[in-house]
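Exercise: predict the structure of this protein bound to protoporphyrin IX containing FE.
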Amino acid sequence: MSKILTTESGAPVADNQNSAQAGLGGPVLIQDQQLIEKLARFNRERIPERVVHARGSGAYGYFEVTDDVTPYTRADFLDSVGKRTDVFLRFSTVAGNLGSNDAVRDPRGFALKFYTEEGNYDLVGNNTPVFFIKDPIKFPDFIHSQKRDPFTGFQEADNVWDYWSYSPESLHQITWLFGDRGIPASYRHMNGYGSHTYQWVAADGAAYWVKYHFKTNQGIRSLDAGQAAELVGQDADSHQRDLHQAIERGVFPSWTVYVQLMPVAEAADYRFNPFDLTKVWPHADYPLQKVGRLVLNRNPENVFAEVEQAAFSPNNFVPGIGPSPDKMLQGRLFAYADAHRYRLGVNHTQLAVNAPKATTAQNYGRDGLGAVNPAGRAKNYEPNSYDGPRQTDRALAAPTAVQGWTGAHAAEAHAKDDDFFQAGELYRLMSAAEQDRLIANLAGSIGSVGRDDVVERVLPFFHAADADYGRRLQAAVEAIRNADQA
Ligand code: HEM
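Solution:
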């Protein structure tokens, strides 16, 4: 016998094709439960999309430790070679809305949830090792400038570059974004980075500053501007299709995971601020150390339930891993769970994709919209004499020394700090052909800016990074602007 269609409360539905009417040809009856419930539920299918990174794709898999890192962290999921931990990874674009295109020039999100035996560890990174800004107070303005204009309703090159013309610290990330890696061919063919500096603490209490690198084993593949425009025209969902189909075919994407480790005592005198998110740590100073392998091998069963409702928060740490004083990271420690409470509700941590899997959540938080109250009859206050869950008295990470006065401070500058030298180094690392494409991409974008003063403010940044970079870009921008005026 075929399955019976039921209402939400489980009663059989007699007719799912014809709504009930008062007589043949008469008005529709409100007593038709199936009709009313169906229309009402349909109206409520959408939830707020993420304010950034709205468009994304997710998959499950595992992380396996391949190299011993126990001298550096006491994180349980990293405590022995061969240990595997289940993960969920969501890739995303940043600026576009849920219904935008995959193959666009934009950083890509690389948000990873490790379901460890000591709770979920979220590493919410990007496919770029650096970012545009270094203070969280700037984030809403920066994002507004990159998304749709309130009046025209579309992204405006003038807004994008107007903001950047007041943000010299963006130049390194801009150089990265307009270079070859700015449009990945797929989510499988790009690296991931934790981007921020984090803290690892070993069992003996030794603390390290750490940066994460996920190197794609599929090889880096990118699209140039022409290929991307063509692909977007053919398939808005190219990255989603590629990831989903690869996993369905049994072609499981993987990444080799490395860290850079800096003993905490070296941070104070490092030649630039090691907590500055606009800079990388040169590998010559802090070489990559292999940690493990990340493999994605299972598609979600339901995109809405598991991808749209996935909630990653940079403040979900596990013992042995903690934050650094990077101001951007500190801002993010607040922003994400707050966004989740708005977007998904206070009980988003009880949704299957977000709940711990290798352990259970045990605390005294209760109730709220959508609660399934897994704690049942257990007492809802602490301390109590009913053998309820207790604190461990063991800090997750190591304390950080602070000094000085409260107040709005710019990031601490070290001897070599400026906003341009690493953008120049990245430019000089590129082959001649890559430099040509970078200049063409940048000139195309800056050349479409209408306001002269914006162009005049932004070009000096490129000159400051590298004389050749500045000279060539200036000439290319002027050629485009002169041709437009002719
Ligand atoms: C102060 C700076 C930042 C703020 C305030 C911020 C805030 C947010 C917010 C509110 C969301 C939406 C969360 C949700 O609704 O689930 C989000 C998503 C995301 N952000 Fe940030 N962000 C910042 C910087 C960064 C940086 C530096 C990175 C990468 C290194 C990053 C990576 C991501 C990723 C990957 C997502 C998507 C997570 C997912 O797949 O659900 N963000 N951000």
